[in-house]
Design brief:
This protein is an all-alpha fold. The protein contains 12 helices and no strands.
Length: 280
């Protein structure tokens, strides 16, 4: 996989571990709890079994197909990015669906999306381990750590707050993972690509968040996140961590925009909404 050979060996090792960690953090937030979500949406045992079987039936042959295409065309990094992005979109849509007929195409698309990820991560890990004279297990263990942390944390979040936290957590972890795949390209382009991607989940779930803390509360979150984001950037020298920090763009800019528009609308006299928004 020649595209990784341009990186220093130590950087490739760090990237491989980070990719494993965040991918299995994402899986740990979704896989153990997805059937519970189906059940709470009224699906019967047979319907849940059909959805689980579909995932296996689709992902197994798709994994071979995507891996063969990646090896033949030498586009491993591109396929990995597309797979991660499409997987997080599918899961975000799953979290907004409650009908069996709609679950079916989303589960199929999700299975197609993730089918290539593990083989590509394994290839990255093997290259990095060889370059650093490490074993594959020393790299892969990062995924196990991510899974353990995620299952415990997301289980607590679901029990304490809401079942939808499994989707919030998955999307957040996959966005971080996407950031690590993007650092193989220009750091500047990657940083702003990650920033733009981080807006999507905030925009989608802003309404639910404001139901809990209000528009004013979300504005406070946005302002604090802005302060944290710029503070971190002032200390960072490694482009990889600058890209990761750009994930805060969603909770700063996107949160500020949606909360600001809502806050202003709630306090504007009738008939002056457009004028107020133009000033904002």
């Amino acid at each position: 996989m020649n595209f990784r050979n341009r990186e220093p060996a130590s950087s490739r090792l760090f990237t491989a571990r980070a990719l494993y960690f965040w991918y299995y953090m994402a899986l740990g937030s979704l896989s153990p709890f997805l059937n519970l979500y189906y059940e709470r949406n009224g699906l019967r045992g047979m319907q849940i079994g059909v959805l689980a079987a579909l995932g296996v039936l689709v992902s197994s042959p798709a994994s071979i197909l995507w891996s063969s295409i990646a090896d033949r065309l030498k586009i491993h990094h591109r396929i990995l990015r597309i797979s991660v992005l499409s997987a997080l979109v599918c899961v975000a849509l799953l979290g907004r669906t409650n009908r069996f007929a709609l679950f079916i195409p989303l589960v199929v698309l999700y299975a197609l999306s993730i089918s290539s990820i593990v083989p590509l991560l394994d290839g990255t890990a093997l290259d990095a381990a060889r370059a650093n004279e490490r074993s594959y297990g020393e790299v892969r263990v990062a995924g196990t750590v991510g899974w353990i942390i995620s299952v415990a944390l997301v289980g607590w979040l679901i029990q304490s707050f809401d079942i939808h936290w499994l989707f919030y957590s998955y999307v957040a972890c996959m966005v971080v993972m996407l950031g690590f795949t993007l650092h193989w390209t220009s750091p500047v382009r990657s940083a702003w690509a990650v920033a733009a991607i981080s807006e999507a989940p905030v925009m989608i779930y802003a309404g639910r968040l404001m139901q809990r803390i209000g528009a004013a509360g979300m504005l406070k979150v946005a302002c604090l996140t802005y302060a944290l984001r710029w503070l971190l950037l002032s200390f960072i020298q490694d482009p990889i961590w600058a890209i990761v920090t750009q994930l805060l763009h969603g909770l700063s800019f996107a949160a500020f925009l949606t909360a600001g528009v809502t806050y202003l609308n709630e306090r504007t006299p009738q008939g002056l909404t457009t004028t107020a928004q133009s000033i904002f």
